Amino acid sequence: MKENVTPKITIYFILLTNLIFILYPVISLAKIKKGLPCSACHTMHYSQHGGILTHWGGSGPYKALVINDCLGCHTGNNDGTNYIPYVLSTSPPDYSNAGVSGNTLAGGNFYWVSQGQEDRGHNVKPFPPDSVYGYTPPGGSPLSSQLSCAGLNGCHGDRSKQGDFEAILGAHHANDDVIDGNTVGTSYRFLLGIKGYEDPKWEYKPNVFSHNQYKGADRISETEVDKSTISYFCAQCHGNFHSGSSQISADIGGWGSPWLRHPTDYDMGNTLSDSEYRNYPGDYPGAGATGSNPYSLIAPVGSEDVSSPKSNILFQKDAIITCISCHRAHGTPYKHNLRWDYYGWPETTSINGCNACHTAKN
Ligand code: HEC
Ligand code: HEC
Ligand code: HEC
Ligand code: HEC
Ligand code: HEC
User: Fold this and answer.
1) 257 lines ligand 4 (CB under 6 A)
2) What is the C-alpha separation between 317 and 134, in angstroms, rounded?
3) How close is the Cα of 2 to the center of ligand 5, in Å?
């Protein structure tokens, strides 16, 4: 008996290790890369040879014994091989093709805000506060201090906790194979409670087969709120732009055209079957597109099912408008961190993402 079983086990073992080897780079990118020494990110005393190392931040010691603050570790130029997603560049990033084929990631980049262009993104600390808005998000109530990366006055982590590291503690080491929104580490991009599919390269040069898949909801009233969508995430601060009586649609509690504010968490499948929206994405199919209604990376739509990225969309719960169909969260070279040069079209740019959906308005 033994002689027959052993070779089988060996074959299974070889198959299994091969499979792990094949899947490994894909699964592992969203959490800390295996094989890195602790010292790549941690320092026990914030001291080496009586001083600090050149690649550490200069204002330590930092909480959780890390070598830099949030922005410090997340500063650099993305080249497709970096294991830290960079959201701040120190030289002008390449934002080609509305941020799709250059070297910025899905959230855009804080570079323009860091250069004093305060209306090109969120003015997070340590950059000066926005001189127009101060601490008040349009459509919402004032924060108690300036925006920070995480926590009470920030976006990532547990927003009930004061402090960047307090709000995020444990998330970087968490196993995030399943994004259920239950903990910071298992929420979409450490945004507590939010769901979605995380592209392992944070949308570095994405195509229709590899991109984030944003969570949306096909709502039936302007007061309905699904707390796991990416638009609800924005609405935690910009509430009236997303939901509330007589905020979004004409009649109290209503839902439909004529709108009062641009709808989000609204599925384009609710429009007539011969409407202009059914030709999505018009002139802006994503790279690699084939077939009808391919996903657009210029003006992406969300879906209720976020188990995997969608290369083509159906007009039923995956044609959902989200805040980030038009904006990027961190910053862009354009006013109001819009994904494309809204105010420049048609004079200075041929890209107008509005037309990905409003296909008859080009
Ligand atoms: C690539 C960067 C990186 C590497 C490598 C790394 N860490 Fe961390 N670690 C972090 C960051 C960032 C935090 C703080 C934020 C957080 O907790 O999410 C952290 C937090 C921690 C914490 C506090 C939170 C928790 O999960 O309990 C411990 C303990 C820790 N790391 C231990 C280690 C040890 C031990 C190693 C080596 C085996 C290691 N880390 C390697 C980045 C790293
Ligand atoms: C010591 C360096 C280091 C510090 C400090 C650090 N990060 Fe990270 N961060 C990383 C690395 C490495 C990754 C990629 C691996 C991962 O997702 O855990 C990452 C990933 C992330 C991601 C993407 C998670 C995902 O789903 O892909 C977010 C969001 C993030 N960090 C936010 C923060 C915030 C907010 C802080 C400050 C509280 C912070 N980071 C501090 C190194 C760091
Ligand atoms: C923690 C609160 C908070 C969250 C969450 C938040 N914002 Fe903001 N937002 C602000 C504040 C405060 C301002 C005004 C100050 C500034 O511009 O930094 C602002 C400003 C803006 C602006 C105007 C920027 C400018 O200078 O013209 C846009 C656009 C915006 N937010 C979009 C979004 C989107 C899209 C999301 C979701 C991805 C989002 N916000 C999530 C707090 C928030
Ligand atoms: C992801 C798809 C999508 C994008 C991108 C988009 N829209 Fe819309 N827009 C819609 C849908 C769907 C409606 C609702 C149509 C309906 O209910 O008949 C709508 C509604 C509107 C309305 C109100 C129409 C009414 O009947 O009250 C205006 C105006 C509008 N959009 C302008 C724009 C502009 C300007 C842009 C670019 C900044 C833009 N949209 C980007 C899908 C989109
Ligand atoms: C259809 C595209 C589109 C969608 C969807 C969209 N926005 Fe905007 N947003 C714009 C445009 C265009 C502007 C520029 C000003 C204007 O036309 O109102 C803008 C401006 C803003 C501003 C600045 C307002 C001010 O007072 O200066 C904020 C904040 C903002 N959007 C947040 C959001 C949030 C939050 C969501 C989701 C609930 C969202 N946007 C959804 C296109 C969009």
Assistant:
1) yes
2) 37
3) 68
Rounded to the nearest angstrom, the distance between the alpha carbon of 127 and the centre of ligand 4 is 33
Answer yes or no: are the C-beta atoms of 177 and 186 closer than 8 Å. no
Measured in Å, how far apart are the chain's first and last C-alpha atoms? 73
- The reply to whether ligand 5 has any atom less than 6 angstroms from the CB of 134 is no
Best of 238, 243, 343 for a ligand 3 pocket test (most atoms within 8 Å of beta carbon): 238
Per-residue pLDDT of the chain (362 residues; tens, 9 = 90+): 344 444 454 444 444 444 444 444 444 455 788 899 999 999 999 999 999 999 999 999 999 999 999 999 999 999 999 999 999 999 999 999 999 999 999 999 999 999 999 999 999 999 999 999 999 999 999 999 999 999 999 999 999 999 999 999 999 999 999 999 999 999 999 999 999 999 999 999 999 999 999 999 999 999 999 999 999 999 999 999 999 999 999 877 789 999 999 999 999 999 999 999 999 999 999 999 999 999 999 999 999 999 999 999 999 999 999 999 999 999 999 999 999 999 999 999 999 999 999 999 98
- Ligand 4 center to 202 CA (angstroms): 27
Q: pTM for the full model?
A: 0.94
Nearest-angstrom CA–CA distance, 306 and 293: 18
Quick one: CA dihedral 23, 228, 180, 171, positive or negative?
positive
